[in-house]
């Protein structure tokens, strides 16, 4: 992410042109104050609790690829 002082510089945001749609969406979601609040609450309340984590994921439409490398088949 570019420094805050460069927010008006087109060159500072040129990296956006090379992002996938998911990466592009993440750039904006992570800057959303409501998302930041919910994320902090999840971290403070123990994001390991499946019910709370699932609620956070559903609210914000987050889906992550299976990182375990397992395949269903």
Give a written overview of the molecule.
The protein is mostly helical. The model has no long low-confidence stretch (mean pLDDT 76). It has a domain at 27-62. It contains 3 helices and no strands.
List the helices and strands and how they pair.
Elements: H1 21-29, H2 33-45, H3 50-60
Helix pairs in contact: 2-3
Gist of the model:
With 73 residues, the chain is mostly helical.
By DSSP, the count of extended strands is 0
How large is the radius of gyration?
Answer: 16 Å
Helix-strand pattern, N to C?
HHH
Helical content stands at 40-55%
Overall mean pLDDT: 76
Number of helices: 3
Largest sheet: none
Beta-strand proportion: under 5%
Low-confidence runs of at least 5 consecutive residues: none
Q: End-to-end distance, in Å?
A: 39 Å
Q: Structural class, from secondary structure content?
A: mainly alpha
Shape: elongated
Defining key terms:
73 residues; mainly alpha
């Amino acid at each position: 992410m570019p420094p805050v002082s460069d927010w008006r510089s087109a060159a500072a945001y040129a990296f956006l042109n090379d992002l996938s749609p998911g990466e592009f969406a993440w750039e904006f979601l992570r800057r959303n104050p409501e998302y930041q609040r919910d994320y902090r609450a999840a971290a403070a309340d123990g994001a390991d609790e499946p019910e709370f984590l699932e609620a956070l994921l559903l609210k914000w439409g987050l889906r992550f690829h299976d990182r375990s490398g397992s395949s269903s088949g």
